[in-house]
Design brief:
Elements: E1 29-31, E2 37-39, H1 53-62, H2 75-95, H3 109-119
Antiparallel strand pairs: 1-2
């Protein structure tokens, strides 16, 4: 079987159109059996949705600072921990969750649902009525 090669010239930066955010790979071009290169129409976004350019840029900005979250005493660990905690605060704000609500980050939706299914979802008894949020 011939090994696939990803041609560098086959991509162009994501473009913003109709007021929508740019998506990584929006300008991806792929070869046809005729040898012609055409814009790619990615229709399988169930488990592999491409990232928004703004998200990729934010990840790229953090990567040099990425370190042990909640486990390191070094400066990079402190920066990474602060960024994670700010992200949790932002999720609480976005979902109108109370300040003491627990926010757990997982790798993806499938991982989150498997975690809930495996561990069982047993909410801690609380006399206050509160909505359950699963994002």
């Amino acid at each position: 079987m011939e090994r696939a090669v990803i041609p560098v010239a086959a991509t162009e930066p994501g473009r913003v159109g109709d007021g929508l955010p740019a998506v990584v790979g929006a300008g991806l071009r792929v070869p046809l059996v005729t040898g012609e290169w055409v814009p790619y129409a990615g229709l399988d976004h169930v488990a592999s949705t491409p990232s928004l350019v703004a998200v990729r840029d934010a990840v790229d900005e953090l990567l040099p600072w990425y370190s042990s979250v909640h486990r390191g005493a070094g400066f990079a660990s402190q920066v990474a921990t602060r960024v994670y905690e700010r992200a949790r605060q932002e999720v609480r704000r976005f979902t109108a969750a109370p300040p003491d609500a627990t926010v757990v980050f997982t790798r993806n939706t499938t991982d989150a649902l498997n975690l809930l299914g495996r561990e069982g979802w047993r909410p801690v008894p609380d006399p206050r009525p509160a909505p359950a949020l699963l994002l």
